[in-house]
Automatic annotation (TrEMBL):
Listed pathway(s): Amino-acid biosynthesis; L-lysine biosynthesis via DAP pathway; LL-2,6-diaminopimelate from (S)-tetrahydrodipicolinate (succinylase route): step 3/3
Described function: Catalyzes the hydrolysis of N-succinyl-L,L-diaminopimelic acid (SDAP), forming succinate and LL-2,6-diaminopimelate (DAP), an intermediate involved in the bacterial biosynthesis of lysine and meso-diaminopimelic acid, an essential component of bacterial cell walls.
Positions of the Peptidase M20 dimerisation domain: 183-287
Species in which this protein is naturally found: Methylocapsa polymorpha
Gene: dapE
Cofactor(s) needed: Zn(2+); Co(2+)
Protein name (database record): Succinyl-diaminopimelate desuccinylase
The protein's assembly and partners: Homodimer.
Enzyme class label: hydrolase
């Protein structure tokens, strides 16, 4: 009988793989080896699409019956920024002051290691007589998210894989382990607004048409009134202007156009189509004859909710019992691959504390990684009736 890996050791081995999107850096091989040793059947699948990098993904399963609980996550990480500003080499996975330090520890190699260690230990103790356990691991969550989880899910579905529930190991906790479980996510829509004018000399403004005042008026029309008041499980939708650009190096030239970019995190009051229509109506009311164009990026991030049910109760109950904290069921934060998983089965998210994710000196407490492993193990026992 194989010995289950230590979550902390496995986490450190994963962090030592420089898997900045789209590079794998050997991380999937580290995880695959641990799962194979525990008896999981594994598959490495590379997906491609023009204009995007090829991405390596890992699918694993043990057992053949239902229910089928799958763990999902990613091993790719964001760039380190200025490595010289880190206390330790960002890919050394140093252990200091009771924490593992390195890029991707919190988001989310610590959770990947924790649920892999928990699943391996569970299989060694209980086998798979009562169902199946699987893994959906991508290297494209921090990147375009085109050749990762969305395609891996379709690949598995086309081969007859049917998931009953999923736990995604994103760092959901704001301050302490047990703070929060994500049961949904807001949608995300990106837009570009361009106000058109006529270039001319600043000393002869009547011969020109300055687009900047038009743009300011249009932007004010977008943000003057809230989009909504929120819903039962979601905060109000939020529009943030992220850039205003003219690109004019001269002091004595009125520019020909001015542009702004914005992002909206929207709740389940909206679809991308109804939201776009609302924004166009707001601009029409604020435009006062302004010449402008509005365009949107393709949207693959829709608002969704996993309605609380017995599965949610199992996860929340274990978290509360193990941490002493009653977790908030939340839909806050950014997007995640749960937006793809929800089309195949109910999904909740629970992982480590995210306070340092994407930051210099990203880290996670050793005690938290070990406690998260115990939580995942207890969820497996409760889910399969042990």
């Amino acid at each position: 009988m194989s010995v289950a890996p230590s979550a902390v050791d496995l986490c450190r081995a994963l962090v030592q793989c420089p898997s900045v999107t789209p590079q794998d850096g050997g991380s999937l091989s580290v995880l695959e080896a641990a799962l194979k040793q525990a008896g999981f059947a594994t598959h490495r699948v590379i997906f491609s699409e023009p204009g995007t990098p090829d991405i390596d993904n890992l699918y694993a399963r043990i057992g053949s019956g239902a229910p089928f609980l799958v763990f999902a996550g990613h091993t790719d990480v964001v760039p380190v920024g200025e490595a010289a500003k880190w206390r330790f080499d960002p890919f050394a996975a140093e252990v200091a002051e009771g924490a593992v330090w390195g890029r991707g520890v919190a988001d989310m190699k610590g959770a990947v290691a924790a649920f892999a260690a928990a699943a391996c230990a569970f299989v060694a103790q209980h086998g798979t007589q009562k169902g199946s356990i699987g893994f959906l691991i991508t290297g494209d969550e921090e990147g375009p998210a085109v050749n990762g989880t969305a395609k891996l899910l379709r690949w598995a579905y086309d081969r007859g894989q049917r998931f009953d529930h999923c736990i995604l190991g994103e760092p959901t906790n704001p301050q302490a382990l047990g703070d929060m479980i994500k049961i949904g996510r807001r949608g995300s829509l990106n837009g570009t607004l361009v106000a058109h004018g006529r270039q001319g000399h600043v000393g002869y403004p009547a011969r020109a048409n300055n687009p900047i005042p038009h743009l300011l008026r249009l932007l004010n029309g977008l943000i003057a009134a809230p989009l909504d008041q929120g819903t039962a499980h979601f905060e109000p939708s939020n529009l943030e202007i992220v850039s205003v650009d003219v690109g004019n190096p001269a002091w004595n030239v009125i520019p020909a156009e001015a542009r702004a970019r914005f992002n909206i995190r929207f709740n389940d009051s909206w679809t991308p189509e109804t939201l776009q229509a609302e924004l166009r109506a707001k601009l029409e009311a604020a435009g006062q004859g302004a010449d402008y164009t509005l365009s949107f990026e393709p949207c693959n991030a829709l608002a969704f909710l996993t309605e609380p049910d017995s599965f949610t109760d199992v996860v929340a109950g274990v978290v509360e019992r193990k941490t002493g904290r009653k977790p908030v069921l939340s839909t806050s934060g950014g997007t995640s691959d749960a937006r793809f998983i929800r089309a195949y089965c109910p999904v909740v998210e629970f992982g480590l504390v995210g306070a340092t994710m994407h930051m210099v000196d990203e880290r996670a407490a050793v005690a938290d990684i070990e406690a998260l492993t115990e939580i995942y193990a207890a969820i497996l026992e409760a889910y399969f009736g042990y």
